[in-house]
Design brief:
The protein is mainly alpha-helical. Helix content is 75%, strand content 2%. The protein has helices at 2-20, 34-41, 43-60, 66-84, 89-104, 106-110, 117-131, 141-167, 172-175, 180-217; strands spanning 23-24, 27-28. The protein has a two-stranded antiparallel ribbon. Strand 1 and strand 2 (27-28) form a beta hairpin. The protein is globular and about 55 Å long.
């Protein structure tokens, strides 16, 4: 059992690394893998796989904004894993701490609220999503699809939340030498990008996610580790 889990972590870490090199607009195809790493491997093993994949990818192809991916992607996976286990408290804690830090920061109170509406919606949806999280493992296609869509949305938005947290409350914008005006412009553009990203991930999960999980369920050597 342990050997199989270690092997799966290695497989998903490799896949995460590989997808990083496949560009998709301003990001990479790795964003589509985030929900499935958490759902299939569980929160801790999924987090480890995403962390390993993110680090290896950025060692091979260095990125000046490496810290965003290395911190954000694994925590998005962690959120998906916890929600699939119907464990809402750790995810709620992440959102509570980071949103509080954002609104306490002067810039967080100045930037338009519409730029983080997806984050606020995800925050509201954490508890109901966790309550239906286990339905993703049931045979009912409708229930599985709804659960997968909600988990995919929140895990993707969690990735964005971590990036916002690092950029504003942690102060990376200051380390990058950005003025308040530059931060405002970047935030507006980033919010539009995030909404497009949310839509793409949910669409992909809806189209291929549930059928993929059903195929995996039928494989005798496969087991959910959540």
């Amino acid at each position: 059992m342990l050997a199989r889990r270690v092997a799966l972590i290695g497989v998903f870490a490799s896949l995460h690394t590989l997808l990083y090199f496949m560009p998709l607009l301003w990001r990479s195809w790795a964003i589509f893998l985030i929900p499935f790493e958490g759902i299939i491997l569980g929160p801790l093993a999924g987090y480890l796989a995403a962390l390993m994949g993110s680090i290896i990818a950025r060692i091979i192809k260095p990125d000046v904004f490496w810290m965003f991916g290395i911190f954000a992607e694994p925590l998005g996976v962690l959120a998906a894993g916890f929600l699939a286990k119907r464990d809402w408290k750790p995810v709620l804690a992440i959102y509570g701490v980071m949103l509080s830090a954002y609104f306490i920061h002067p810039l967080g109170r100045q930037l338009p609220l519409w730029t983080i509406l997806d984050i606020l919606l995800a925050f509201i949806l954490i508890y109901p999503t966790a309550k239906i999280g286990r339905k993703i493992f049931e045979g009912n296609l409708k229930h599985s699809t709804i659960s997968l869509i909600f988990i995919s949305f929140i895990s993707t938005v969690t990735d964005a939340l971590i990036r916002v947290f690092l950029f504003i409350p942690v102060g990376l914008f200051s380390l990058l030498g950005l003025t308040s005006e530059a931060v405002y412009a970047i935030f507006i553009a980033g919010a539009i990008d995030s909404y497009i990203e949310d839509t793409l991930v949910v669409a992909v999960s809806f189209i291929i996610g549930t059928p993929l999980l059903k195929v995996l369920e039928k494989m005798p050597e496969f087991k959910y580790y959540s």
